[in-house]
Batch of 2 targets.
Target 1
Amino acid sequence: MSAQLALDIPAQPAAPEKWGVVVDEARLYSIGGSPTDWWTASAAQFHRSGRLRHLSTLIIGGSVELGPFDREDADFARTHLIANGVRPELATIRRWSEQPHLPGCRKAKPCSLCTPAP
Ligand SMILES: [Zn+2]
């Protein structure tokens, strides 16, 4: 179903790019405090609205990605997190991709590295 994507089609400026905000939940929880409580409630809201997906799961938390947003909304979401006490380095904006890449992976296309184990 993704065969057409393999064609070398030039980027179309008309199609708006989507962005995501990667949140390092594991570090957020390890730091603790009121940002953690705020995040727990906010993450549930993002999850209910279909704007949160899990990238990796560790023993405590993991990494999640908020989105997809247009760039303005992604900036707003990140600023909102920081305003509520989340450290700036724990919230990273990157291009949205259909495949949920692991934190740190900068690819937008599907990659085998981030394919979940069956
Ligand atoms: Zn990847």
Target 2
Amino acid sequence: MKILIVDDSEMVRNFHCYILKSQGFQVMTAVDGADALEKIYGGDHHFDMIITDINMPNMDGYSLIERLREDEQFASVPVIIVSTEDEAQDKTRGFEAGADVYIVKPTEPELLVEQVLMLLGN
Ligand SMILES: [Mg+2]
């Protein structure tokens, strides 16, 4: 299982990598939505899940998810948003964009792992 972690904060990327690697997942990282699209379309990587921040330069998380959902190939890839935004309207927008799960930072490792496993059907 390979997961793409998208966040403009290096600290958050490292933290999420650490959590997921400790569970045996392979991870790759991207620094914003545009970088994520390059990694998704540019290489020969297959990602089983995307975990993305919302607030990022160049392309935010909403736009990234919308772009992926428009592509038949990625219409059903599991997507988790992990964001500092805690308002109902942010969550609604995230789900409307096509996210499956919305987690508020700071990330609780147990919650992230639980949601990842749930989305992967374990
Ligand atoms: Mg951010």
